[in-house]
From TrEMBL:
Gene3D superfamilies: dinb family like domain. This is Mycothiol-dependent maleylpyruvate isomerase metal-binding domain-containing protein. Residues 10-136 form the Mycothiol-dependent maleylpyruvate isomerase metal-binding domain. InterPro entries: CHP03086 (IPR017520), DinB/YfiT-like (IPR034660), Maleyloyr_isom (IPR017517), MDMPI_metal-binding (IPR024344). Pfam families: MDMPI_N (PF11716). It comes from Dactylosporangium maewongense. It comes from the Bacteria.
């Protein structure tokens, strides 16, 4: 399968890679728009979620930690941490590359279970892209969430987010007030963009 089948996932991973490249050790404890988590915890969560998407497809490689209770403690230095996050994105991309573009029952780690391939890959991308934005805001980097990417992720969010709010995965939606796609997406996810 062509790796470009899931361009929304590729672009979301590129957003996460961009903020990872801009990190320095002093950034790791900074607060983020995810109120209870610092930069390290957001990245641990994002990495764990990418492993979860990969493992749901392949049946192996589940995260060895709870992505929803990230420790905030590094195993090694910043370069090792960046390499770990990179490996989780590679695992996710490799797993999604085995899913047909027209799949109707792609496995996901979400409570909703199997879903259309475009939706599952989009959900993995949504997680990566939005957490890339969280880290960018926390560290003063430019937003990696373009309007074009947000426009493709918004239908995914509208399909999957409401049931996940009950689990505390997303805050209540905020008014978007005729904003552009990136702000509309972020506000739909409860972020004050």
């Amino acid at each position: 399968m062509d790796s470009n089948t899931w361009t929304v996932l590729d672009e979301s991973h590129a957003a996460l890679r961009a903020v990872l490249a801009g990190l320095c050790p002093s950034d790791l404890l900074l607060p983020t728009p995810c109120e209870l988590w610092n930069v390290t915890q957001v990245l641990q969560h994002a990495a764990g979620d990418q492993l979860g998407y990969a493992a749901a497809i392949t049946g192996e490689g589940w995260p060895t930690f709870d992505p929803f209770a990230p420790s905030g403690e590094l195993d090694g230095d910043l370069d090792a941490f960046k390499a770990f996050v990179e490996r989780t994105m590679q695992a996710s991309a490799a797993a999604w590359a085995t899913v047909a573009a027209d799949a109707t029952d792609a496995p996901t780690p979400l409570p909703q279970g199997k879903m259309a391939g475009w939706l599952g890959a989009g959900a993995a991308g949504l997680d990566a892209a939005v957490h890339a934005w969280d880290v960018a805001v926390a560290t003063g980097q430019p937003s990696p969430l373009s309007d074009g990417l947000a426009e493709r992720l918004l239908p995914v969010a509208r399909e999957i987010v409401e049931p996940l709010r009950a689990y505390g995965a997303y805050a209540a939606a905020l008014p978007a007030d005729d904003a552009g796609p990136a702000v509309t997406l972020l506000r739909y996810l409860g972020r004050a963009a």
